[in-house]
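Deliverable D2.4 — example input (structure tokens):
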């Protein structure tokens, strides 16, 4: 049932793409500045390194811990956008994700299409679930991932939070096959991208076991969404939708210009 929405979004993203990024930035002289973002274990994030943000939606579930194990093993982080009905079943998993050095985001109470419900419903879907996450230990204002990636001007005017969509769809929700999930990410991943996955499938856990070491081997550092944007100096604004950020090269050019 998700297929149509995801296909639409995919088409929309491709037209909005900033163009191909260039991995050939090894020669760039980009120092880590004084205010470099701190990643996991307080290791500063070098903005000249290739960065990618894996994101996991629709949990927490029985698979969340298994994904955290892999991330921890490789000293990596990710962002988990959690949905209300699963938080209520296992509120302790919110803290577990935070304790693993990962970020917790809001994926609404009931996973409704926000662009197709009343203003009042949008507010309750977003803010009630944020309250639930706050109570479970994820403090403060949280990034929102709108269900199906769907928003409109009304939603943007109501939601006083940055909305994070994605630029790489692993299609794990569709194929439920580890090999296909791995292939899809390997094919499309680039510096500065946000990858969509779901911590509710066994196949995604298997895919993560292969993808995380592969990404590191390819020179990526796996960071949270907030760390990704912070490292590249792009401010996340309330009511705006994001899918990816600057590559290391674009980031350096912006600073030079
Ligand atoms: Zn979802």
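Example output (designed residues):
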């Amino acid at each position: 049932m998700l297929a149509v929405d995801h296909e639409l979004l995919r088409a929309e993203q491709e037209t909005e793409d900033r163009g191909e990024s260039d991995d050939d930035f090894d020669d760039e002289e980009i120092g880590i500045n004084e205010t470099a973002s701190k990643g996991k274990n307080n290791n500063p994030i070098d903005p000249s390194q290739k960065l990618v943000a894996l994101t996991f939606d629709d949990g927490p579930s029985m698979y969340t811990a298994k994904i955290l194990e892999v991330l921890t093993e490789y000293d990596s982080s990710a962002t988990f956008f959690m949905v209300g009905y699963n938080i209520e079943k296992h509120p302790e998993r919110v803290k577990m994700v935070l304790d693993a050095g990962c970020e917790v985001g809001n994926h609404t109470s009931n996973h409704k299409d926000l662009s197709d419900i009343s203003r009042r419903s949008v507010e309750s879907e977003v803010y009630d679930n944020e309250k639930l996450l706050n109570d479970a230990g994820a403090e403060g204002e949280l990034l929102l991932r709108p269900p199906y990636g769907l928003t409109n001007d009304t939603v943007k005017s109501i939601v006083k939070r940055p909305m994070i969509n994605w630029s790489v769809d692993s299609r794990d929700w569709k194929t439920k096959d580890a090999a296909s999930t791995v292939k899809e990410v390997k094919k499309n991943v680039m510096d500065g991208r946000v990858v969509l996955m779901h911590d509710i499938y066994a196949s995604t856990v298997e895919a993560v076991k292969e993808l995380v070491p592969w990404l590191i081997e390819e020179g990526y550092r796996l960071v949270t969404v907030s760390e990704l944007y912070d490292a590249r100096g792009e401010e996340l604004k309330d009511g705006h939708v994001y899918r990816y950020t600057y590559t290391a090269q674009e980031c350096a050019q912006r600073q030079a210009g």
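The longest strand covers residues 50-57.
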